[in-house]
Amino acid sequence: MSSSLKQRNPTSSQANDTDQEPPESPPPQLRRQRSTSHQAMSQTLTSAANLANLLPTGTLLAFQLLIPVFTTNGSCEYATRVLTLVLLTLLSISCFLSSFTDSVKAEDGNVYYGFATRKGMWVFDYPDPSGLGLPDLSKYKIRFVDWIHAVLSMLVFGAVAMRDNNAVSCFYPAPEQETKKVLDIVPVGVGVICSLLFLVFPTRRHGVGYPVTGDGGRR
Predict the structure, then answer these.
(1) Residue ranges per structural domain of the chain
(2) Helices (DSSP H) in 75-138: which residue ranges?
(3) Between 120 and which of 50, 76, 138, 213 could a Cys-Cys bridge form, CB atoms 3.0 to 4.6 Å apart?
(4) What is the CA radius of gyration of the chain?
(5) Which residues of 144-164 are buried (b: 16+ CB within 10 A; e: fewer)?
(6) Which strands sit side by side in the sheet containing 101-105, from one edge to the other?
(7) What digits encode the pLDDT tens for the residues 125-136?
(8) Is a pLDDT exceeding 90 seen at residue 89?
(9) Does residue 160 contact residue 188 with C-beta atoms inside 8 Å?
């Protein structure tokens, strides 16, 4: 009787050892593929977030709200197509001009906005016309990098507009295969190139519609 128990115990212990074996880990090649896919997805999301930051939030919000109305959800006629083109033109100009705006913190602690000029910055919402309480505005004069950012902002907005289904359906209701490929590739290429150029030519302006940070040490 005892011998039979002794023979059964090793069997049960072996079964327990078998049940408690950890699951096999995926092969190293599969782990590398998952890691590469995760990094690619993370970089894609980061690039999309960076592109959104390159545009004024007010202009981008106006585009998202108005484009379905102007295009009647992508079903355009001649009149609505012309109105949509006018809307896109005005929003592009808004992106261009917003690149020349900047903000400044006055002595009262409030942030005021202005427009960069050759001699400095014209603050258009400061209550005192004499400019008393403002820092030296000559440091905020227009620079060559502002023109680069203005053009890049327009290109980024064009890329965003070309990726919108309503806008594309309005101007290209039945695109050919080659045209469809161009509409899929060009906006992505423009977005990547503009993101790289923004890194090469950084700006420290915080204009209308852009995030406002501390003013100290910005100039």
Answers:
(1) 57-100+143-203, 101-141
(2) 78-98
(3) 138
(4) 29
(5) eebebbeebbbbbbbbbbbeb
(6) 101-105, 111-116, 121-123
(7) 787 777 778 888
(8) yes
(9) no
